[in-house]
Design brief:
With 238 residues, the protein is α/β, with parallel strands linked by helices. The protein has 7 helices and 10 strands.
């Protein structure tokens, strides 16, 4: 099983094209479902909030700040959303009304950085050097779908960036042990994709994104937050 669901090999390009067509169709269906109801109907006045609700979940100042901005500004368009905190190696999933549905530790790209190498999704895994194995920061429209081996949440198909259940990979990777560790410092091991516990994927991610698209916000680790999410800067000038 691959360390990350990137299907770049020439021998499977036909399968990759078929998967992309299926993912595109699924995304179109999800958008149609969401688009059938006005935004006001998706989140009722009683559900709207001016701040995100974290319940008992601990979160960094950066995570709380962007979550509050997302909810107050409506940047998530009334859709479920997810925040990936690379510094803290944590994933937070929110319902469309801004209430946290769950949070967990995550494994992320081995490389430190907020950009993705051009055409990374078309390359063989063996050619991707450790410093190129980044989890790129940004705002993405995500939908459930499939790679060549499993169901995943496609964050950015063209960059082969997805969130999925943790896979074992090489025994030396100790992925499950890294997830269980209290420190985020040993959570950088993947080729760029986001690995989460299977129970979290099945119990939180799938229910949140079934029948709809959602927004995934991957926070930067080397760039300023407002440079990655310029709408935050514009909102601050009003």
């Amino acid at each position: 099983m691959r360390s990350c669901p990137r299907p770049p090999c020439p021998s499977i390009r036909a399968s990759r094209r078929a998967i992309k067509r299926a993912c595109t169709a699924a995304l179109a269906i999800a958008l149609a479902i969401v688009g059938d109801a006005p935004l006001a109907a998706q989140v009722t006045p009683t559900e709207r909030a001016i701040r995100a609700e974290f319940g008992s979940e601990a979160a960094s100042e950066a995570v709380r700040g962007i979550a509050d901005w997302i909810v107050a500004s409506g940047d998530h368009q009334g859709l479920p959303f997810m925040i990936v905190d690379k510094v803290g190696a944590r994933v937070f999933v929110f319902a469309r009304n801004g209430r946290v549905a769950g949070a967990t530790s995550a494994l992320l790209g081995m490389g430190i950085g907020d950009e993705s190498v051009p055409d990374i999704g078309k390359r063989r895994l063996a050619t991707i050097r450790p410093h190129e194995r980044t989890t790129p920061a940004g705002r993405h429209q995500a939908a459930l779908g499939f790679d060549l081996e499993q169901d995943v949440l496609w964050v950015d198909y063209d960059q082969a960036l997805s969130l999925h259940r943790v896979i074992d990979g090489k025994p030396a990777d100790r992925r499950r042990e890294r997830l269980a560790s209290a420190s985020p410092l040993d959570n950088r091991i993947s080729y760029g994709c986001i690995n989460v516990p299977a129970a979290f994927y099945d119990g939180v991610v799938i229910p949140a994104f079934t029948g709809t698209v959602g927004i995934v916000y991957i926070l930067p680790e080397t760039r300023a937050l407002a440079d990655v999410f310029p709408a935050m800067r514009r909102a601050g000038r009003r």
